[in-house]
Amino acid sequence: MNMQLLLGVWAAIFAAYAIVALMRWNLGRREDDHLHFADSEQQLVATQTTIAHKLDVLDRWRTVLLTLTIVSAVIIGLLEIYIVWQSTSTTVRVG
Q1: How far apart are CA 89 and CA 75, in angstroms?
Q2: Domain contains 57
């Protein structure tokens, strides 16, 4: 098993997570936390709705990518432990 390939895939997943997290942070900075109810503020309401939807989408992707990052790191770690265990174990042949 080529561990460099698995680590490369893990690094790509982590990089995707980091990019989505930075995009979410940057978009969240532009979010307006005030409620707008007046008719004259309809443009602000539309902007808030659009940004809120984008934040929701980025949150879903961030959750999925973080889960993939953690699960793949655990699997790669367990695989490495198994490979090391197999390479150091000795087989006793009787007979």
Answers
A1: 21
A2: yes
Number of C-beta neighbours around residue 36 at 10 A: 15
pLDDT digit string, tens, across residues 63-79 = 999 999 999 999 999 99
Which letter, b or e, does each residue of 60-91 get, where b requires 16 or more Cβ atoms within 10 Å of its Cβ? ebbeebeebbeebeeebeeeeeeeeeeeeeee
In a domain, 94, yes or no: no
Full domain range(s) for residue 45: 3-88
The verdict on residue 95 lying in a domain is no
Q: Are 16 and 65 in contact (CB under 8 A)?
A: yes
The encoded tokens of residue 37 equal: 């109810």
Task: Kindly report the pTM of this predicted structure.
Answer: 0.79
